Every structure is written in structure tokens, then in C-alpha cells.
Amino acid sequence: MKKLGSRLVRILKPKPLRRRPRVTVVIPHYNYGQYLPVAVASALDQEGVDIEIIIVDDRSTDGSIEVARRLTAQDERITLVEHPENMRHIRTYNDGLSRATGDYVVLLSADDALTSNSLTRAVALMEAHPEVGLVYGAVEWFQGDLPPVKAAPVWWKIWPGEEWLRRSVRCGRNSIANPEVVMRRSVYEKTGGYDADFPHAADMYMWLQAASFADIGFVGGSRQAYYRDHGQNMHSTEFAGATDDMTQVRDVYERFFARDGARLPAASRWLERSKRSVAREALLRAALLESTGSSHSSAVALREFAQETCPQVVGSGAWRWTGLASRGAGLFSSRRLVRLVEGIRWKIRSRRQSAMGL
Length: 358
Description:
Elements: E1 10-12, E2 22-29, H1 36-44, E3 50-57, H2 64-74, E4 78-82, H3 88-98, E5 104-107, E6 113-114, H4 118-128, E7 132-142, E8 155-159, H5 161-171, E9 182-184, H6 185-191, H7 202-213, E10 215-228, H8 234-237, H9 244-258, H10 267-292, H11 296-309, H12 317-324, H13 334-356
Parallel strand pairs: 2-3, 2-5, 3-4, 7-10
Antiparallel strand pairs: 1-8, 5-9, 6-10, 7-9, 8-10
Helix pairs in contact: 5-7, 5-10, 6-7, 7-9, 9-10, 10-11, 10-12, 10-13
GO molecular function, one term: glycosyltransferase activity
Family: Belongs to the glycosyltransferase 2 family.
Organism: Leifsonia tongyongensis
């Protein structure tokens, strides 16, 4: 465990790169041939760094492999790994990253993309601050073609790892989307790779691990990646159960504080705080579902999950708020009030996270 000195979060002015580091971008790929060229082109659109792209095709069945082969033949910086059988996403991630030769690594889903020079910005931060092991930034969600992103003055934020963990525990959720993350390869290797026990939250577990022995950086002012929302994302198809996400988030905290974070002075206290945070997050999601009429059964399941995770949450403000969301249908019903407030809350949360990282 790295001994952390100052707990102060630092806001810094960016510095230019002094050398040309190598970055490996691993693109796991399964039946996403229609999106793959955009992902690859975005990864190559980076100045001041040497790019290595490893496409890992997990036995595509729709002819997408031909797209990957064509892209590979066009640029010597691209390598294609073809799985003889489908290995599923976690093993595919780890396979691709195990082949990385760069100083820094990125896992980019084939349906997502990087913004121009996002790797340059992230790597510059880590080059200037060797204590930082992971850098992320704001994400632009989109559908269809890549939207333009506004140019903005760039600034850096650095959290001591322990401070980032403390704030993450208070969130009770995964605060990083994934395509915007750049990791120092040495830090990635210390995590042991993506954990197959958490098919929906292995990335979150890795972020916590990284923060246990390195500082965390954030590139502010500029979007660092694009996240495509097309209804077929893994979170929408394979993990659509109402409590799946929250259950894995809770289990990630429990695993982390039992293993990697066990030596933290506040480990037991932070674990209990994480359970309260996860339970509260589940209740707020339940309130949103109830108020919008999306799924009463899912909202009920989330309430039950919250009570199981942290019994003390029963009777709390969040618990009563969820109950209000299921009542009334008139013009001034409590459901309408909850829907209005929750809509504002989620917008504020999204903007705060994009602007500040946590």
C-alpha cells in the first residue's frame, strides 16, 4: 500500500509532453464491424504519442472479422487477434491487455470512441506526475454519428489515492464510464486484470485497486471519450436486471475492503459507509423508476435490495422518498413531484461528474 502524504486535491495547469511515450489501445470486438472503423480512427487521432492498437475479435459471427482484417492490413500500427472460440468479454479484455507493449494502456469498446488528442492530454498528466496511475475525464454520450465536441481550456486534477477512495465510497456507484480511462501499464499489471467474478463491475473493482497504490488524475475542461448509447450496449442487454448493477457494486466494495483495501486505516468504517451509500443509491433509482412508471416490480426489488444491504436505511429520507414516488396520479401528485426532483437531481449529478470527476 502506498503511503500517502498530503490529502489535498490538487488543481494544476497542464504541461506539454517532453517525450513520445507509447500507448496501447486494446479494442475488444464482437459483431461490431459497423462501429469498428470509427473506434480505430479515433484511437489513431492522437498527437505526440506512439499508438499501438490491438483488436481482439471474440469469434464474431456476422462477418465483422473482415472489417477488422481490412483495417489491420491498412495500418502497421494495428494488430488483430482472432479467437478460435468465443471467450466472453472479461477474458477477451485480459487477453488483449496482456499483449500490450505500451507505457500506458487503454481499453476501448468497439462501439465507443476517443476524442481527438485525448490520449495526449491524459498521458501528459501521468508523464508529469509519476505518482498518478490512472487518468480519466468527461464522456460525451451519443447516438448515431460522432457529435462535435467544444474546445475548452484544459486543466488537471489529482487526488491522492486514499482521498479518491473515500469520495468513491460516498458515491455508492461506479463513477467512471470506461472508454475515457488511461492507465499506467505497470499499475494495470498490479491489479491482476479484470476480475471475472464481476462481469458488470470488474472495471470499478480495478479503479479501486489502482487507487490503493497510486494517485488518480482527471483531465478537466475537455471531453475525453465518446460513449455510444444504441440500446445494444452490454449493460442494456446482458445486465438488464434492476438489481444486478447495484448488487455487483456492493459486492465490489466488500471484496475490495476484504482484500486490497484491508490495510487502509479506515477500511471497516469505509465498508459500512459504502453499504449505506449503495443502499441510498438503490433507493434513488427506485424512486426514479416509480415516478416515471418504468417498472414497479424493479423499484420494489431495489427497495428490498437496499434494506438487505443496509437495514438502517429503512425509515430514512431516501426510503420515504421512494414511497412517495408510488403514490397519486393527479396534477399535484407526489409522483409528479418526485419525477420533477429526480430529473433535476440526475442532471446535476451528470454535469457535476463531467465537470469535477466525482
